[in-house]
Amino acid sequence: MKTCGRVFFHNARRLAAHKFTFTEVRYLSAQPKAESNIEVGSLSEIQMSVAKHLNLKTHLPSPLSKQMDTLGELVTLIRDPMMEIASCMRVVDKTLPALRLVLWGAFGTGKTVTLNQAVHHAYTNNWVIVHLRSAMDLTRRVKEIEMSSFVPGRINDPSNAVAVLQNFKQQNQHVWKTLGELFTERDYEWSKSERTAQGKPITEIIEMGITAPFLASDCVGALFRELRRHAKDGKLKALVAVDDANSLWGKTLVKRADRTYAPPSDLTLVVHFRRLIANDWTNGCVLMVADKKEVADARDELGVSRHTPLELFGEEGFEFVEPFLPIETTNYTESETNTLYDYYVRKNWLASKSARTEEGRKQLMHLSAFNPYYYERLCAFN
Amino acid sequence: MLRIALTRSSRAMSVASQASASDSETSVRKIGKALETYLKNSQQHVAMMEKHRAEFETGRRHLAKMMSLDIHELDQAAIDRAIQYLFPSGLTDPNARPVMRPPDEILPKFQRFTFDEEGKPEGTRFFTLNPKIYGLLSEIGVKTQSVMKFYDEHVGSRSVNRSDLEPANLSGSQWITADKMKKKLSEKFTNELYGQVIIAFEHLASLPGSAIEQKFLSEFREPMTASTGSKLFGPAIPEVKVCAETNRRYAEVTTHCKDTRATVKVTDAGKGTFNIDGLQLHDFRHLQAREILLAPMIISQTLGRFDVTATTECISNTLPEAPNREPFKRSGGMSALPRAVRHGTALCVAALHPESIEPLRLSGLLTLDPRKNERSKVNQPGARAKWIWKRR
């Protein structure tokens, strides 16, 4: 399996190199309707109803979700990494192992926004979406813990598990009917009283987890297991989008009984997500973001840390995700800033007189150093 | 009678100092009061200068002894050094500092009339009462004539340099003031005369072809006080060089701010990229830092035209550390490092884009910021802070 993955990794690289010709060809033949609004360097709008359905307000970076509230619409720029992801998602097949993509790049270059665009792309193609806002939530924002009854030594995280299930339910309403027609493979005995019999729809697992938080962590595992199996059978296509995925191999703030920090491999949810990332299943795409917030010191205002996947995933994590396709996000080009500048002027988001002059346009561009995050911040105050 | 007396007395004056007292006494009685005073003053001045010269020589010998130097080694530069060493002065005005120079250089000069063999005053302008200034006026007149003639002869011909047929280039300078001109000519004259001289100069300078008299004109000009020239505090605007490989213009300068020393190279015809110790502009995550770095380009309105390459180091890192201390690695901070780079960038931009020198200077970017971290004091927790006083 691993060699197969490696071969595919190289193929995908080659695909990425020729992505433009490739996309155009596949565009017209495969799914013209769903992808007709994707064009590199153009602005694309995500309907507010869809954004609400996909719960993008919590998944997007906070400045962008605030801007979404203010302007009353969600308009993002389609950039090269998104095109690359779209072309990779197009080749996903029952015969190919789950395709792993790692988005990496400097701070503020649009990793999370690209991830959300990919989720929207999956939504338009009727894929099943497993979207995690931040893997750091699982390791560092654990409010309450329970020891697992299923595997000794594992630590369950009921609140996060319920959140994962609820989010899954909300984001997959477009395929909910399909999920309801997929059945469980075996009996699941959650506790002495609760069980899910073989042949029940897998949506029941989700409902079970949401209503009984102490079972939620195990339900997440079962759900992912069923999803992988049905994907292999070709009943569905799944997109697993994990933000800050390198935190799955980072450090945790969960304390065990002996007051030592538990390694991430002891956390049930982390283990379940790692199994999704492992490409022993087919007909799916795993999209990960390597973010430096796991390793960087938030109080260090001057230091510039490395942001390449090897540094961020660490030896162990890198070996785990290894045959993958790296996709780098970069700063804007001049034409991209101009597109956004025109949009902001049109929306009166750039209100001051000086910002609307030619000199103002240049200054915004250079003061933000062409960085998308800085550019948005500057435009919000001018 | 009067004429004879004048002749005699002027003979006596033409030999000035050598005139013996007895010889002059007999003749002076017969001449006017004014000349009498003049002769007396002249003799007094000669005597005083003799005395001062002797004193200076004695002083020089003493000084040589004190500094244990040979008298021949003690030239004027050595005297200045010795005086600076023996009388250290913290006064800022150079005129207020102690000085030892030959009396001929520093004592006021005595204006001596010159007479010819027959005792007539030399030069016909003696009787104008302002011989020097009228001499200058007539010199200007002669030069005006020659310039006009030169222009008429050579206009249209290829035998002379074309730049010689232009008016003199006097930009960045002005005519010297009346006081300075009086000092230069060592003669007193009225403001009306000064005005006439300036009118004559202006006329000469406005003529086409006056470029050939550029040297003469510039003797009576001084640089304008407002021009930047060499007035900048800190490093001067560097020279523009051309890279042999890429054929792009560039300028390079080294400067510092607080403890950070920066060597900045700005290349023309670039894309507005930054490379500061391997960091790009977006690696400076504070807007303040990016604003500081881009300030010279914003002010000169050349955003996206220059590429900036800079290397920085900490000055105190290069200094020797006390032997019992670990060498402490410091680095420029959030604003000091960009400010050091900004000063270098502004100087280079001024060199590559001279139109922006004035706006850059007015916004203070060409001036070095000399402030330094104040040293902490012994027995105190900091530079100014004191330990809390406590009655035992």
TrEMBL record, chain A:
Pfam families to which the protein is assigned, alphabetical: DAP3
The principal localisation class reads mitochondrion
Which molecular-function annotation in GO is an example for this chain?
structural constituent of ribosome
Cited InterPro entries: P-loop_NTPase, Ribosomal_mS29, Ribosomal_mS29_met
Keywords for the protein's UniProt record, in alphabetical order: Mitochondrion, Ribonucleoprotein, Ribosomal protein, Transit peptide
Q: Does the keyword Transit peptide apply?
A: yes
Does the keyword field hold Ribonucleoprotein? yes
GO cellular component assignments: mitochondrial small ribosomal subunit
| Cell location | Mitochondrion
BP term (GO), one: apoptotic process
Similarity remark = Belongs to the mitochondrion-specific ribosomal protein mS29 family.
Q: What is this protein called?
A: Small ribosomal subunit protein mS29
Species in which this protein is naturally found = Caenorhabditis brenneri (Nematode worm)
Automatic annotation (TrEMBL), chain B:
One GO cellular component this record assigns the protein to is:
mitochondrial small ribosomal subunit
Q: Name one GO molecular function term.
A: structural constituent of ribosome
Arranged from A to Z, the UniProt key words for this protein are:
Ribonucleoprotein, Ribosomal protein
Q: Which Pfam families match?
A: Ribosomal_S9
> Which InterPro entries did the record assign?
Ribosomal_Su5_D2-typ_SF (IPR020568), Ribosomal_uS9 (IPR000754), Ribsml_uS5_D2-typ_fold_subgr (IPR014721)
**Does the entry feature the keyword Transmembrane, yes or no?**
no
- Keyword Ribonucleoprotein applies: yes
- What are the recorded Gene Ontology BP terms? translation
Q: Which family does it belong to?
A: Belongs to the universal ribosomal protein uS9 family.
This one is known as Uncharacterized protein
The organism of origin for this protein: Caenorhabditis brenneri (Nematode worm)
